[in-house]
Amino acid sequence: MKLPNGPQTPGLVQMLQWIVSPMSFMETCAKRYGDIFTLQLNSPVVFVSNPQALQQILSSDTKEFEAPNDWNTPFEPMLGKHSVMTLTGEAHRRQRQLLLPPFHGDRMRTYGQVIGDITEQIISQWQVDKPFDVRSAVQVITLRVMMQAVFGLYEGSRAQELEKLLVAMLENRSALQVVILYFPALQQDLGPLTSWGTFLRRREQVNQLLYAQIQEHREHPDPSRTDILSLLMTATDEAGESMTDVELRDELMTLLVAGHETTATALAWALYWIHKLPEVRQKLLEELDTLGDNPDPSAIFKLPYLNAVCCETLRIYPVGMLTFPRVVRTPVSLSGFELEPGTVLLGSIYLTHQREDLYPEPKQFKPERFLERQFSPYEFLPFGGGARRCIGMAFAQFEMKVVLAKILSQLELELIDNGDVRPKRRGLVTGPDRSIQLVVKNQRFVKSQIFASIPS
Fold first, then answer.
1. Given this model, what pLDDT does residue 316 score?
2. Model's pTM, two decimal places?
3. Domains along the chain?
4. Phi, psi of 357 (to 5 degrees)
5. Measured distance CA(59)–CA(388) in Å, rounded
């Protein structure tokens, strides 16, 4: 079977390059081989970044292509075998349908006040002239938002312990841990002092807390509750079956981990670019000030320049580098290549977002490009695409906008170091290659607040 061209170095070398520096490895290959190439990652994998080819792959999920059964295993140790992110086929479709109701547009709007209140509570603790790590600071916000949205709580000993354990599990993202995720044979418990042993013990503690919360919800059902766990427990599939405790645990873990860490990273990038580029910050503040003090979250969501800033943040360094894998089901022609059944394909979100023909000067942060034209779902796809597009996409976009609006409207911030920050691998996703440090210079008041404080 003839596959698209790719590096001729040994597969192990390619795998190590992929683990250590995936973005630069993909860019090097794209420059040499074009927008479709093959890497040897345990087995051959075809990378695709052409929008037309991506449309063919992502819009044909059940015809020419399907999700392979064994390619999402790196997510299993953290999320479980029953997560919507690790399942395939009919099981995936069922779980996705069960998860949809909490993320319906009308339902999400009820979370707007929660997002705003938590953001104000956290940023009120940031001290003037005391530098802080942006990603860690906003991660506190996004984790508490998810705790409130998922469980209806973010206070109490169980919530605090769960929060502490999740942060600890996610912080240690060494290259060795990534290697272990890609090579399951290395996942051996060699004691609590080893990296994998520590992970397993923390995971068990998290499991105990999650199962205790599930049990509490079962023992004290309340039809008036709107938290996601309550909604998931009442959801049934086409056969009238509801989720088991194990399925609930895996979906809760997916929401808590994927639902807060990725948004925190995106917010950190957004705050970096906004404060690195004064003209972007100025335009954003002018737009936010038109809403006055204490604007409604739905009004924030509709702001065009804020939307453009969020889109450009997700474009330039997407948190997720790739779409979920697909495997060829029947012989198919893709970008001039005849691919046989069994060929594994990965859509490169990162490379698609770096295409000069779509995004001139792709390394430059230019929100205006999202005001000047509309991109197709196969040209701009920070949340993936097709049947496996991120189910929390709208929630994440809503949260990004409300959190940014609250922070920028209330605080004058400044970068400690205006030097460049680049993306690097962070576990199975990406993040900044160094700490982004901000400092609060002053409280900020919009004009309506200033006028209101002047005696008549």
1. 97
2. 0.90
3. 11-453 (1.10.630.10)
4. -70, -25
5. 11
